[in-house]
Structures are given as C-alpha cells and as structure tokens.
Amino acid sequence: NAGVMQNPRHLVRRRGQEARLRCSPMKGHSHVYWYRQLPEEGLKFMVYLQKENIIDESGMPKERFSAEFPKEGPSILRIQQVVRGDSAAYFCASSPGQVGQQYFGPGTRLTVT
Amino acid sequence: KNEVEQSPQNLTAQEGEFITINCSYSVGISALHWLQQHPGGGIVSLFMLSSGKKKHGRLIATINIQEKHSSLHITASHPRDSAVYICAVTYSGAGSYQLTFGKGTKLSVIP
C-alpha cells in the first residue's frame, strides 16, 4: 500500500525555465493538496484539487503557477519562468475525503540557479 | 485569523528526558494536527485530534478546546526523536480542509 509519491525528489532549474512537479496520491484518495515550504519559513497552503477540479487555489501566486489533477495520472504543479524566489520544498498531501487526516509525500526540493 | 503559535522554537534535551511542545491558536478549529519533519525533509502525520487526548507509543497529544491550546509530549526521549515538530490546524467553516501551520519546534535529543 504505497504512500503518497512525489517526483522528482530534487529538481534544479535555471531562471526562466519551467518546473513540473508530480504527485501521485495514495490509492483510494481523490483529494490532493499542495504546500510550499520556503527556506527558514513554515509550510503554506497553495492549492486543493479533486479529480479534474480545482477546489481552492487561494494560496497560489497569481502568475506563473498552475495546478491540475487529471482524471488519469498524477497531479501536477507547474511553475513557468522560474525565479530564484521559487526555490523551496513543495509538498503534496492526499486524503480520502475533504475533512480528515492528510498524508504527505516526501516533497520535491526545487532549486533555481 | 491564521495564527498558530508554537513554543519553544528550539529545544535540546538529554536522552531519556520528558519533552513537552506547546501549540496555541486564535480561533475555533475543526481539528489540530501534529506533524514530524525529519532532517531528510519528509513529513509524517503523528496525530489528528479535535478533543481530549491521544497516545501512540511514547507520544501523547492533548488538546484543550476552551483554552485553544495543545501539547505534544514525548516520554523517554531518544536521539531518533530529533526532528522538527509542527502543529497545524484546520479552521471551522469554509476552507476547513486547509491546513494552517505553526513554524515548528526543532528538537535535538542528545545521547
């Protein structure tokens, strides 16, 4: 019974490139959450998705960031034209329902050079 | 609204000591979570509670809804307990799925 999977674990991008972060929720979970942890800061909510729907993206920066959770395949967090300030750890979590315990993936550490 | 305060920020303990980490929040919540983040960075969910007390092994979590306060206790601490412990809440009402996090307590247990 695999847990939440994220890949890649580490991603290095140059300024201006695109970053794609993938998250496969636990089996049976249809709710996915993305969180960002900036260096020396706490975790912050970014976006909440259910299959094919964005439920709440109030924590997402207005530009360059997008997320999706297609009917088939993993959830993807996409960052276009990355800047140094995007360097952070990005965590995905999943849950079987909207309310309840969330299970975290190992995170993707993005470094923008 | 979104205030989750933890104390202490850093904690160093000798192996075997009893440890307490505190968390307070400002408004009504639907649930409080304790998470553990190891030096490698992965996050493990330890407890989710909305009232009373929960125990798992050497870990005990308590919550006082009236005082808006929770504690995480570790009995007979061990160096492998060294990690960052994070308190998070989900608020009542709209957006009750959204976790709001404290800044974490960095625990170091010395042999």
Task: Write the SSE topology.
The complex is a heterodimer of chains A (113) and B (111).
Chain A: E1 5-7, E2 10-13, E3 19-24, E4 31-37, E5 43-50, E6 53-56, E7 65-68, E8 75-79, E9 88-95, E10 103-104, E11 108-112
Chain B: E1 4-7, E2 10-14, E3 19-25, E4 29-37, E5 43-49, E6 52-56, E7 59-64, E8 69-74, E9 83-91, E10 99-101, E11 105-110
Parallel strand pairs in B: 2-11
Antiparallel strand pairs in B: 1-3, 3-8, 4-5, 4-9, 6-7, 7-8, 9-10, 9-11
The backbone outline of chain B, from C-alpha atoms, is: globular
Radius of gyration of chain B: 14 Å
Number of strands of chain B: 11
What are the secondary-structure elements of chain A, in order, as H or E?
EEEEEEEEEEE
Shape category of chain A: globular
Termini Cα gap of chain A = 37 Å
Number of strands of chain A: 11
How large a portion of the residues of chain B is in β-strands, by DSSP E? over 45%
* Main sheet properties of chain B: 6 strands, mixed
> Helix count of chain A, per DSSP?
0
Low-confidence stretches of chain A: none
Kindly state the mean pLDDT of chain B as a whole number? 93
- Which pair of protein chains has the largest interface, and what are the residue counts? A-B, 27 and 23 residues
Strand content of chain A: over 45%
Pick out the low-confidence regions of chain B: none
Quaternary structure classification: heterodimer
Residue share in helix of chain A: under 10%
Distance between the termini of chain B: 40 Å
Calculate Rg of chain A over CA atoms: 13 Å
N to C succession of SSEs of chain B: EEEEEEEEEEE
Task: Find the structural class of chain B using helix and strand composition.
Answer: mainly beta
